[in-house]
Amino acid sequence: MENTETLWADFANPIRTAEDYLGSLRGRSMNVYFMGERVPEPIDHPVIRPSINAMAETFRLATEQPNLATAHSDISDRKVNRFLHVPVAPADLVGKHEMQRELGRRTGTCFQRCVVGLWALNGRANRLTMSGCDGDRMNVSLKSQL
Q1: Dihedral angle at the C-alpha atoms of 8, 13, 14, 15, nearest 10 degrees?
Q2: Domain holding 38: CATH number?
Q3: Which of 29, 68, 69, 127 is the most exposed place for a label (fewest CB within 10 A)?
Q4: What is the pLDDT of residue 139?
């Protein structure tokens, strides 16, 4: 088993581009199986690669069309990938929808980052926040909804 420092070293350079993402997958000695067979290098497998390409397209869109694929985060006070952004206004949801439509046009498939459950929690958190709940009450209320 690798030590903690070795495991976290993979995160020293954030993935910002499609090429970064693709490069991050190569040579990782992952235990991936497809139909009972071990896949030594998943990025080269013909059935797995289309999903990898679709995910890479999410990073490509962020570099090619940053206004569409990024948003300002009130949490970190900086620009973040729209997939990581917690929507706080209707315009944020419209922006996320427009980004997903563009990715659908580009990939013609699932692009592996549509986390519907998180949308539900985001909506619930935003409704509570907009109704004036403080953070502690909101967290207790959210936990009761899970």
Answers
A1: -110
A2: 1.10.3140.10
A3: 29
A4: 45
Q: Is residue 66 a part of any domain in this protein? A: yes
Structure-block tokens of residue 72: 């300002």
62 contact partners, CB below 8 Å, separation of at least 6: 16, 69, 70, 81, 82
93: left (phi over 0), alpha (psi -120 to 50) or beta: alpha
In a domain, residue 144? The reply is: no
- Residue 59, token pair as written in the block: 């990073």
54 is written with which tokens?
């679709």
Q: Is residue 65 part of a domain?
A: yes
Residue 144's pLDDT band, with cuts at 50, 70 and 90, is low
Which residue has better confidence, 73 or 8? 73
**How many domains is the chain built from?**
1
In a domain, 92, yes or no: yes
Interval 12-62: pLDDT, tens? 788 889 999 999 899 888 899 999 999 999 999 999 999 899 999 999 999
Per the structure, the complete domain to which residue 53 belongs is given by: 4-114
